[in-house]
Specification:
The structure is a homodimer of 195-residue chains. By secondary structure, chain A is mainly alpha-helical. Helices cover 70% and strands 0% of the residues of chain A. The first copy, chain A, has 9 helices and no strands. Chain A is elongated. The termini of chain A are far apart. At the A-B interface, α5, α7, α8 and α9 of A face α5, α7, α8 and α9 of B. Chain A binds a DNA duplex (30 and 30 nucleotides) through α3.
Chain lengths: 195, 195
Amino acid sequence: MSRWEPNARGRLEQAALELYAERGFDDTTVADIAERAGLTKRTFFRHFTDKREVLFSGQTLLAEAYAAAVAAAPASATPMDAVADGLRAVAAIVEDRGELARRRQAIVAANRELQERELLKRAALAGVIVDALRARGVADPVASLTAETAVAVFKIAYAQWSTTENTALTTLIDQALGQLSAATANGASASGPAG
Amino acid sequence: MSRWEPNARGRLEQAALELYAERGFDDTTVADIAERAGLTKRTFFRHFTDKREVLFSGQTLLAEAYAAAVAAAPASATPMDAVADGLRAVAAIVEDRGELARRRQAIVAANRELQERELLKRAALAGVIVDALRARGVADPVASLTAETAVAVFKIAYAQWSTTENTALTTLIDQALGQLSAATANGASASGPAG
DNA sequence: TGGTTTGATGTCACCTGGTGCCGTCAACGG
DNA sequence: CCGTTGACGGCACCAGGTGACATCAAACCA
C-alpha cells in the first residue's frame, strides 16, 4: 500500500475548484484547500507556484494544441487562416470539457486577481502562436499582429459562449472572424487621422 | 508650515521607480520605498492598493485621452478609424513622457508580476474603448473586436518603439494598422477550416 | 535478502504584502 | 476659542510564499 493517496495534484485542483466556488477566492486560504485535499500548505506550493495557478494548469494543453494546429495548416494558407485553424482546434477541446470550463469561468469572472492571471495565460498563448507563425515563415510584426488578433477573437467568442447557451464555440469563432475581417478591411487607413 | 512634506504620492512613485530600477522589483520591499520617500509602509498602502500599482497610476490618464479622441472622431469615421484616432492621441502623450515611459517599460519587462498588471491595465483600456465605441452606436461584438484589436496594435507598436530608436510611435502605429488591414482583408474566411 | 537511494510529503521558522484599528496633530471652519 | 477633518504614524495581525530539514514507503541494487 502506498504511503499517500495518489494524484495529490488532482485532489488539490479539485479542492480548490470546490472551495473557490463555495466561499469565493478571497475567503479561501491555501491551508483550507490543502486540508480538504488531505495535504499541507507546503505541498500545495510544491505543485503550484501560487494560489491562482491551481486554476490554470490546463492552459499548457491548449497552447500545445494550438501550436500543433497552426503548424499543420497547409502552406497555402494565409497567416490568419492558419491561426483560425488553431482557434477551432482549441475550441473543440474547450467544448469537450464544457462543464468544467464554465465552472472555472464563473470563478475567474468573480475575481480580479484571477482575471489578471487569465490575461497572462492569454498573453502566453499569443506568444506560442507567434512562434508557430514564425516557424511558417511569417515575419514580424505581421506574426505578432495576427497572433494578438486571434487571441482577441478567442476571448470574445469565449465570453459569448460562456454566458449564452446553445451556440457552439466554433460557430461563434467563425462569426467573430468574419466580423473582424469586415471591420478592418475598409476602415483603418494607415495614411492619417480620420478627422 | 505644513506638518508633512508635500506630494507624498509623487515621492512614493519616484522612490519606487528608483528602487525598482536599482535593485529590481522583487528585492525591493514596500518599507524600503516608504523609507526613501520619508514615509511609512502604512501610508504607501493608503496611496496605492498594492506594490505593483505604484507604477501604473498614469494609465487612467491615457484611458481618458483615448476615450475623448474616439468620441471626437467624425460621425463618418468607421469604428476602426475612430479607434485609430484614439491610438494616435495616446501615442502623442506617451511620446511626451518618453524617457519616463522607457524607464518604466524596462522595469516592467524585467518582472512577471508587473507584466501581469500591465495586461490588466491594457484590458481596462480595451473596456474604455468598447464603451466609447458603443456611445458612437457601434454594436457588439464589433465594438469589442475593434477595441481588442486596437489594443493589440498599440501593444505591438509600443514594443517596437521601446526597443528601437528614432522612429516615432505614431508612425509605428500607422504601419501596424496598415499591416493588420492587409493580414485580415484577404485571409480568415469565416466559412471553415483552411485545410 | 538486506542495504541504499530516491522522491513525495510533513514540520517549522521566517519574511513580506496587505489590512484594521487607534493615536496624533496641523489646518480649517464657525 | 473650540470642534472637526484629513493625512500620517504605530502596532498587531493574517495569509501568501519560501528555505531547510526530517520522515518513510518504494524502488533499485549488490
